[in-house]
Each structure stands twice: as C-alpha cells, then as structure tokens.
UniProtKB/TrEMBL annotation:
Xref: InterPro entries: LETM1-like_RBD, LETM1/MDM38-like
PROSITE patterns reported in the protein's UniProt record: LETM1_RBD
Principal subcellular localization: mitochondrion
Domain Letm1 RBD, chain residue ranges per copy: 1-90
GO cellular component terms, semicolon-separated: mitochondrial inner membrane
Protein's membrane topology: Single-pass membrane protein
Protein name as it appears in the record: Letm1 RBD domain-containing protein
Length: 90
C-alpha cells in the first residue's frame, strides 16, 4: 500500500514537472510556492536562499526533461537520491 502511494505521488510530481517546465522552470513561483514544490520533490529547503531554491528547481526540471521517455518514477527517485548526497549541479 505504501509503495502504491509513493508511485502515485511521483506520478503526480512528473505531471507537475511538465507544467513547471512549460512555465519557465518556476521562475514566477512565489517563495512559498517554490518551497512547497521543492519539498514535494523531497528537497530540503531549510537554509537555502530564494536564489538557491530556484536553482535547485531548475536543476530538477532540467534533469527530468533530459530523461525524456525514461521511467518517470525511477528518474525522480534517482534525483531525490542525487540531491541528498549533494549532486544537484547540472
């Protein structure tokens, strides 16, 4: 049951990523919307400046866009792991 919830959440994130990419990688998001978007993706925002949060979201969107037709769930799980170990540069 838990795995199904995680998959459903990551599918929703994948759909949201497409929308964010279309809207300029979140450049028009408010600080609170930006924080929420990152936290939904498993990215800790505590201690990050607004510019750093925007850069992290751009990184995420560019990585998911580059993944193309790969498994969207697998792609996002790997991105969460890469972010956790500090591999969030382009």
């Amino acid at each position: 049951m838990r795995l199904r919830r995680i998959k459903k959440h990551l599918q929703a994130i994948a759909a949201d990523d497409v929308l964010i990419a279309r809207e300029g990688a979140g450049e028009r998001l408010s600080v609170e919307e930006l924080r929420e978007a990152l936290e939904e993706r498993g990215i800790v925002t505590e201690g990050l400046s607004t510019d750093a949060m925007r850069a992290r979201l751009r990184w995420w969107i560019s990585q998911t866009s580059e993944a193309g037709n790969e498994d969207p769930i697998r792609t996002r799980v790997l991105l969460v792991a890469r972010n956790a170990i500090g591999k969030h540069d382009a």
